[in-house]
Write a structure and sequence with these properties.
The relative contact order is 0.15. The chain has helices at 18-37, 59-70, 91-101, 112-122, 136-150, 167-179, 195-207, 218-222, 242-250, 257-262, 282-291, 300-303, 310-329, and strands spanning 48-53, 74-78, 104-108, 126-130, 157-161, 182-186, 212-215, 227-230, 268-271. It is globular, with a radius of gyration of 19 Å. The protein is built from 13 helices and nine strands. By secondary structure, the chain is of the alpha/beta class. Helix 1 (18-37) crosses helix 13 (310-329) and helix 6 packs parallel to helix 7.
């Protein structure tokens, strides 16, 4: 029997089976080929979606807008100042109003409970563009990118370095467990993922013939890795005061040439972006002035190297999001 996820929400990968994730990845490949070949695919002509953004983004917004329009849909973007959600109108009321007008709702913002509540009341598919706990659309792009580079997913050794209890650390651990990759969180103990999620991921990993491990040792954590992944050290929405303590905690977990040399020769570097690999951003320049460091979670050398696939990941957000929209609406 084929996979059918029509009408489903896309809130976190914990809700999806490996077979359903595989279906979305294969569908993403089909859409990527059509996009590259200039083949029209306006399969959802006449439908409309709305994008609710409480946290700004370049890749998520552009991916959803281009994906929706390629599929023939109308797309409405609502920034934090354009919606009354949570201020003058409750989340359930907002969900029921938008569900009457749109065929699907994307949410990018703060607590996972918000997107879960939207899904409960909307009556149409709701897609998680990022919350503080999970980032499932990024996971599909990352899995697709790794499969393109290695030709397979199962058995790859994957290491995430940095704040392993943020939405990326959480989501990558689950994604790897679901798809058979050996996951390592390489981080200070204070920044390990929540134990309940580690336990759940290990149970899933056991079913799929892979492992989940946590280590503070950079040499051990990156040894023979196929993939080295990192993210910015302070997430959007966290106060600026966090930078001082986070830099002290994570300065030894920077992805640099030594880290990449410790991984396999064919290892790739991944990052969900944006990245502070130089001082060409306002924040990068401020951090350099205040703390005296010009490169943070990754050095410019690694970011710009042939091992870096960060812009392939960024493009793949569009193709995988298109697959999610199509599969849940068609």
């Amino acid at each position: 029997m084929g996979v059918n996820i029509r009408g489903r929400h896309f809130l976190k990968l914990l809700d999806y089976t490996p077979q359903e994730i595989r279906y979305l990845l294969d569908l993403s490949k089909e859409f990527k080929n059509m996009k590259r070949n200039g083949t029209p695919h306006r399969y959802l002509e006449g439908k409309n979606i709305v994008l609710l953004f409480e946290k700004t983004s370049t890749r998520t917004r552009c991916s959803f807008e281009v994906a929706g329009r390629d599929l023939g849909m109308g797309v409405t973007y609502l920034d934090p100042g354009s919606s009354q959600m949570g201020k003058k109108e409750s989340i359930p009321d907002t969900a029921r109003v938008l569900g009457r007008m749109y065929d699907g709702i994307e949410y990018r913002g703060f607590d996972q409970e918000i997107v879960e509540e939207l899904a409960k009341y909307a009556g149409v598919p709701v897609w998680n563009g990022l919350t503080d706990q999970f980032h499932p659309t990024q996971m599909l792009a990352d899995l697709l990118t790794m499969e393109e580079k290695f030709g397979h997913l199962k058995g790859l050794n994957f290491t995430f370095m940095g704040d392993a209890r943020n939405n990326m650390g959480n989501s990558l651990m689950v994604a790897c467990a679901k798809m058979g990759l050996n996951f390592t969180a390489c981080a200070p103990k204070e920044l390990f993922p929540a134990q309940w999620l580690v336990d759940e991921a290990r149970k899933i990993a056991q079913e799929n013939g892979c492992t989940v491990r946590l280590t503070e040792d950079v040499n051990e954590g990156t040894k023979d890795a196929d993939v080295i992944y990192t993210d910015i050290w302070v997430s959007m929405g966290e106060p600026d005061e966090v930078w001082d303590s986070r830099i002290k905690l994570l300065k030894n977990y920077q992805v640099n040439g030594q880290v990449m040399d410790n991984a396999k020769p064919e290892a790739i570097f991944m990052h969900c972006l944006p990245s502070f690999h130089d001082t060409k951003t306002t924040i990068g320049a401020q951090i350099a002035q205040k703390f005296g460091i010009t490169e943070m979670e990754v050095t410019d050398e690694v970011f710009e190297s042939k091992q870096s696939v960060v812009f392939d990941e960024a493009e793949n957000r569009m193709h995988t999001i298109k697959a999610v929209i199509y599969a849940t609406l068609c």
